[in-house]
Amino acid sequence: MSGTPVLRVRDLTARIAGQEVVHGVTFDVPASGVTAVLGRNGVGKTSTLRAVLGLIERSGEVELDGVRVDAERTDRIVRRGVGYVPEDREVFAGLTVAENLRLADRGGSGGATPERRALVDALFPDLVARAQQRAGTLSGGQQQMVSLARALLNDNRILLVDEPTKGLAPRIVGEVAEALAAAAQTVPILLVEQNLQVVERLAERVVVIDAGRVVHTGPARELLDDADRVQRLLGVHAERPADETAEPEAAR
Amino acid sequence: MSTLVLLLATGLGLGGLYFLVASGLSLIYGLMGVLNFAHGSFLTLGAFVGLAAGNAVGAGTWGGLLLGLAVGALTGAAAAAATELGLIRPLYQRHIEQVLVTVGLSLATVALFEGIWGPNPRPVTRTAWLGSTTEVLGARVPNTAFLNVLAAAAVLCGIVAFLRYTRYGLIIRAGVENRAMVTALGIDVRRAFTLVFAVGGAAAGLGGVLATQSLNYVSPHLGASLLIFAFIVTVIGGMGSLTGAAVASVVVAVLQQLANFYLDNTGDLIVVLLLALVLLVRPSGLMGRPA
Amino acid sequence: MSHVRTRLLTLGLPAAGLLVLLACLPLLAIPLPGVLPGYTYEPGSLQLLALCFLTAALALSYHLLFGLAGLMSFGHALYFAAGIYGLAIVLDRTDVPLLPAAALVLVGGIALAFVVGAVSLRVAGISFAMVTLAFAQAGNVLVRRDQGDLTGGEEGLALATDGVPDALVGVVNTRHLYWLALAVLVAVHLVVLWIERSRAGHMAAAVRENEVRVRIIGGRPYLTKLVVFVLAASLATVVGMAYLLLQSGASPTTSTADFTLTLLVMVVLGGVGSRWGAVVGAVLYTLLDQRLGELAHSAAVAGLPAVLRVPLSEPMFLLGTCFVLVVLFLPGGLAGAAERLAARRGRVPGKVAA
């Protein structure tokens, strides 16, 4: 592990409409590489990410680069250098691809410098061609590219990426994983992912959540090699091919 | 034939006024989920202050009218921005309370206007041209109708350009779709809130001064009487849709004029029936996104 | 359960005592300076108190909509006005005596509420508020237009007393109208209480909290809301008919949107979701409205500089400002404040017994 963690989460609790969905999770995200958050459906992985950003009501400690941010507004936290790629992409359907990216550009030195723009263009050539197309008319995979590009345009201290391969065709899953691997060279990533092949390829560490609590942390290899443990903690078999669960891309 | 032309022209003029009120309501609702009951008060205040400014330069002159329109728009914008900052923002995300505050503000301000300017309508002095008519296809169309249509078209183009070509416009369009995601991109969406209030208030203030020219009077209840039709327009057009508001403004106003003439003054009732019909067929309005 | 019984006793006894006291007021000579214009037995005082009771009953019916089912209607005045104008017109145009006439108007009010509710409830939240407002506005337009000389337009309509029992007519009989108003308030309160504790009431509260969940467990939110809407409207119609007798006339102001807004103000002042809050809010509002109106015309205010005189001479300005301040700084209204005060004194905060 390299030095101090970029994100420290201590005893984080989150509520949606008054109902507690995350019950005091504690974990660190080291300053490099990919940390995967694993767990069955509905155990509070997405809520944990949203609570870190202050998008839902939360209590507990969240430290970004050694600074407490748990009392700050979402937009302030993000401007400290957090890139968020939400579940289900959440691109602005009525805006063009170019407008989606323009909106995401945080400006100044932390925003879209020519170098970062070139990097994003190189990663997603498809988006350059479709710059004037409305995001709502893109395929699920293309929307995911927009969502990733929005985060990668800016200079971030950390990326929070929520189920980027959900519902994508296997070929697109590979492209998304590639883009994430490229991004991980420069910025640490906290990744929520159900597809264990993607986790295996990208993640160095895992945090396993069950029923709103952290039940396991450790190196990714160690967990994924232990089929019994994977079965017990995640309710799936590690060997299971990813595309079996994938919905057709057109579903979204 | 000439009667029909006249009704269509006056309908368009009235529709222009509706649109000036409804555009702000729709934008504010679309972005913030707030039903702004105080919108009528922005209009009334804009009308009184705008007229006072115009009269100071010269009642019944073009210079006075132009200054009045500008001051009315500025007054509406300032009142609206102050309302957003002082009353709406402290109740962030609590939509019911936000509506209640605007209800209280509207009750209090109408009473205050009555106290300051008296409860009864006061006549206004118009320029000679605005007080007369122009013949179009045999119909003597009041010139105020042209002014209203012109102003509404200008405001529509202005707002559309603002939404399309400025960064804040981009933020507002995105915010109408998904406000949480806009903040998750590091944008303080609250500044956009103040801005839409100001823009809506400016349109209402402008509409206030224009309404006094059409009606030939100004009264503390000017806003309230237009507000209800603006509400109907907003629902019919689809809450949050600017184009919907524009189309519905014209449809509602023209229908109202036609029914008032051909169906024994039943315009107001026909409009409510139209509302009921739209709700039965398309609850999200003409151009609203399905809920 | 025993604690419910103790609760009923601790709450019920003072309530019964208050009721007896209120019922005896027309026979007593108690001066309430600053609140009532004279001794309690005088017609002026009784008229004001009766107005308070009817307003409170109307606020209770609105509480059913807004507090219980979470339906923010801006058109509740429509059903109140339907009661007032309906009865006034039937008495004016026919020879039907009071009670059958009232029954007829009630049926009409229910039918009206059913149709309007069925349409309005197709939308929710803010749209619902606007749509109910539009319908009420249509009612207001009808009343003001005076179609076929039915409603008397801006002038309003005087009560035709032929079909009304003599005991309910004239200033000398104000105490009878006072008792009638008190009876209406008690009856409406009991009906509201009964609805709140019924299955439909629990369902309505559940719909307010989470409509999706109600649908998942097999409930029918639309139907539940429609039932509450019609019940609240019927109560408003009944109160409206009593109001007609008390004021011995119908005035178009009772059909305006502003009138519904004042109901909203009362319920929020008292505390949304609290029955007693609605009653207290309505009584306080009515008394303040009266007293502030007198303050406005007093010599003390007339002597003030314009900056102070103008706002002080507008009761609605003061009430509206109060309302804004309550929404901003006193969440839960008076009932909420009382609860917090009780909690600070170390008692368990009193919740509405379910």
UniProtKB/TrEMBL annotation, chain A:
Give a Pfam family name.
ABC_tran
Report the record's Gene Ontology biological process terms.
L-amino acid transport
Q: Does the keyword Amino-acid biosynthesis apply?
A: no
InterPro entries documented for this protein: AAA+_ATPase, ABC_transporter-like_ATP-bd, ABC_transporter-like_CS, BCAA_Transport_ATP-bd_LivF, P-loop_NTPase
Q: Does the keyword Manganese apply?
A: no
Q: Which residues form the ABC transporter domain?
A: 7-236
Q: Which UniProt keywords apply?
A: Amino-acid transport, ATP-binding, Nucleotide-binding, Transport
Q: Where is the signal peptide?
A: none
| GO terms, molecular function | ATP binding; ATP hydrolysis activity; branched-chain amino acid transmembrane transporter activity
Name the family the entry cites. Answer: Belongs to the ABC transporter superfamily.
Q: Spell out the protein name for this chain.
A: ABC transporter ATP-binding protein
- Species this protein is from: Promicromonospora citrea
From TrEMBL, chain B:
Chief localization: membrane
**What transmembrane ranges does the database entry give?**
6-29, 41-59, 65-87, 99-117, 145-163, 192-212, 224-255, 262-281
Topology in the lipid bilayer is annotated as: Multi-pass membrane protein
GO CC annotation terms, alphabetical: plasma membrane
Q: Which InterPro entries match?
A: ABC_transp_permease (IPR001851), BCAA_transport_permease (IPR052157)
Task: Give GO BP annotations, semicolon-separated.
Answer: amino acid transport
Pfam families, sorted: BPD_transp_2
As for subcellular location, the record says: Cell membrane
| Entry's Gene Ontology molecular function annotations | transmembrane transporter activity
Superkingdom of the source? Bacteria
Keywords from the named record: Amino-acid transport, Cell membrane, Membrane, Transmembrane, Transmembrane helix, Transport
**What family does the entry list?**
Belongs to the binding-protein-dependent transport system permease family. LivHM subfamily.
Could you identify this protein by its name?
Answer: Branched-chain amino acid ABC transporter permease
- Per the UniProt entry, what species is this protein from, by scientific name? Promicromonospora citrea
Automatic annotation (TrEMBL), chain C:
- Record key words, sorted: Cell membrane, Membrane, Transmembrane, Transmembrane helix
In the UniProt record, does the keyword Membrane occur? yes
- Topologically, how does it sit relative to the membrane? Multi-pass membrane protein
Q: Which GO terms describe its molecular function?
A: branched-chain amino acid transmembrane transporter activity
Subcellular compartments: Cell membrane
List membrane-spanning regions.
45-66, 73-91, 97-116, 123-143, 177-195, 222-243, 263-288, 295-312, 318-338
Q: Which InterPro entries does the UniProt entry name for this protein?
A: ABC_transp_permease (IPR001851), LivM-like (IPR043428)
> What single Pfam family name could you report for this chain, choosing any that match?
BPD_transp_2
**Protein name, entry field:** Amino acid/amide ABC transporter membrane protein 2 (HAAT family)
Organism whose genome encodes this protein? Promicromonospora citrea
